[in-house]
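queue> pop job 88
queue> type: inverse folding (structure -> sequence)
queue> payload:
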C-alpha cells in the first residue's frame, strides 16, 4: 500500500510484494490471461510471457483492466486480441479504451480487440471455460471454471463477497480453487480468510489458494496459522506462483 509502514509493506519476503490479481493460463493448444490490471506489463516482463492468445475479464474495476493496452504486443503478433467479458464489462472496456475498440488508430502495433460477449460456457482450445457469476458487493462479477474433458481443473474467483450454492455445485470437487481472501476482517465487497475457508469447505477442492490479498496478511505467518489450524490444503498464493494441473 502506498505510504504504509506496516510489517507486510516493509517485509523483505518477496511473497509479501503483491501486484494486482491476475492469472496466466498455458494449455497445450493456447494461452490466455485473466484480467490485465495496471501491473500487467510488469508481470508479463517478469514472467517472460511470449504469447497471449486471448484475454478474459472478471469485471471492469480498475485493478483488473488498466493494463489492457499493454496487450498490444500480443495483439500485433497474432493480428487481433480476442476479448471475452460479460455484457457490462465489455461495455465498460469499450468506453474506457474507446480508441482501441473504435479502431481509431490503424497503425500496426496498436491493440485490435476482437470482442466476444460471454453468454455461457465457451472453449479456448480444448479447455471449457464456464462463467461463474458471483456477488462482489452490490455488483455481480464473473469467476471462471476451467475444465478439460470431464475434469474440473481450476476455479478462479478473484473478487467475491459470497458464493451462491448454485456456483458451489458447479465447481464441487474442483482440483484447485483460487479464491478471494482479502484479510481477516470482513469487508463489504470481498471474502475474509474465514469466509473463504467456509466456501472451500463447501466446494471440497484438492487444494485452495487465496488471492486478492491485502497488506493485513503477512505471507509466511498467515500460512503457518492456517497450517496450525489444520487447513493443510489451504494457503495464501503469492506473485509468480506457478501451478501445474493435469487431467
Ligand atoms: Zn501496509
Ligand atoms: Zn473488484
Ligand atoms: Zn479486484
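queue> result:
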Amino acid at each position: 500500500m502506498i505510504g504504509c509502514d506496516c510489517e507486510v509493506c516493509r517485509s523483505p519476503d518477496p511473497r509479501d510484494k503483491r501486484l494486482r490479481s491476475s492469472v496466466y493460463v498455458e494449455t497445450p493448444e493456447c494461452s490466455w490471461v485473466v484480467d490485465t490490471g495496471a501491473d500487467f506489463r510488469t508481470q508479463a516482463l517478469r514472467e517472460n510471457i511470449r504469447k497471449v492468445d486471448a484475454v478474459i475479464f472478471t469485471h471492469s474495476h480498475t485493478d483488473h483492466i488498466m493494463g489492457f493496452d499493454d496487450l498490444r504486443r500480443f495483439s500485433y503478433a497474432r493480428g487481433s486480441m480476442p476479448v471475452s467479458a460479460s455484457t457490462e464489462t465489455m461495455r465498460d472496456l469499450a468506453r474506457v479504451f474507446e480508441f482501441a475498440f473504435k479502431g481509431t488508430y490503424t497503425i500496426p502495433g496498436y491493440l485490435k480487440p476482437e470482442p466476444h460477449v460471454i453468454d455461457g460456457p465457451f472453449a479456448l482450445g480444448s479447455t471449457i471455460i464456464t462463467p461463474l457469476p458471483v456477488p462482489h458487493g452490490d455488483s455481480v462479477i464473473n469467476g471462471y471454471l476451467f475444465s478439460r474433458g470431464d475434469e474440473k481443473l481450476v476455479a478462479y474467483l478473484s473478487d467475491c463477497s459470497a458464493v451462491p450454492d448454485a456456483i458451489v455445485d458447479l465447481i464441487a470437487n474442483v482440483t484447485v480453487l483460487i479464491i478471494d481472501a482479502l484479510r481477516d476482517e470482513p469487508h463489504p465487497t470481498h471474502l475474509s480468510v474465514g469466509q473463504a475457508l467456509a466456501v472451500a469447505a463447501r466446494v471440497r477442492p484438492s487444494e485452495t489458494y487465496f488471492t486478492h490479498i491485502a497488506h493485513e496478511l503477512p505471507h509466511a505467518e498467515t500460512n503457518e496459522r492456517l497450517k496450525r489450524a489444520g487447513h493443510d490444503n489451504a494457503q495464501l498464493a503469492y506473485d509468480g506462483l506457478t501451478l501445474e494441473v493435469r487431467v
